[in-house]
Amino acid sequence: MKRNIVIATIAAAALIGGGTATALAVSGDEEAPANKSSVQVSNDDNGRDDDVNDTDDNDADDKADAAEDKAENAADAKVAQVNAADAIKAALKNTDGTAVSADLDDEGTKHVWDVDILTNGGTWHSVQVDPATGKVVGSHVDRDDDGDDAAETAQIRAALKGSSVTAAEAAKAGAAKGTVTSVDLDEESTDKAWEVDTTAANGTGSDWRVDPDSGKITADRSND
Known about the structure:
- An 8-stranded antiparallel sheet has the order 7-6-5-4-8-9-10-11. The chain has a 3-stranded antiparallel sheet with strand order 1-2-3.
- The model is unreliable at 1-32 (pLDDT under 50).
- Helix content is 35%, strand content 32%.
- The chain is an alpha+beta fold.
- The protein is built from 5 helices and 11 strands.
């Protein structure tokens, strides 16, 4: 009578350690060949589960961050009771020149429209306009701390030369797409344009380009 003895402890070790072990069935008959059985246990599934969980957590964090950004954008846009075009007009009444940019900035406890104006004499002025009342609440001359104002001024004048669309008009064009929060001249690209940022009622932000000659507005695809 033949009797097979399986070394169970090796198989048990394999199950606990997650490795691979080979158990031999030993026959009582020396002439009979020994039977070999493989026991394999893998923990790869556990690793895959961890990866899936990490991905889910990251997706949830990204969605939460996006929702928070939208809520902040929507709140900022509601502050702009005075739109970008009117803020630019108010700034130009305070300081004569050419408006080159207007941004709705959060300066500590309150928001202001910050309008950059280039005077005919080549001086840069920053004018702050209250987005609730449209009144000028501050103005100062920008100092040329880095020494590159002359080159930047020449580049901006070249970009504006012959153009017929002002910053205020670009802001009006953008207002058809949402609440304008920023208008800025892109003087560095080959196709010069006014860059306009808008925010929808749900907080979704969009970027636009306004042709300085025709006033045509198109979606800005440079960041896609």
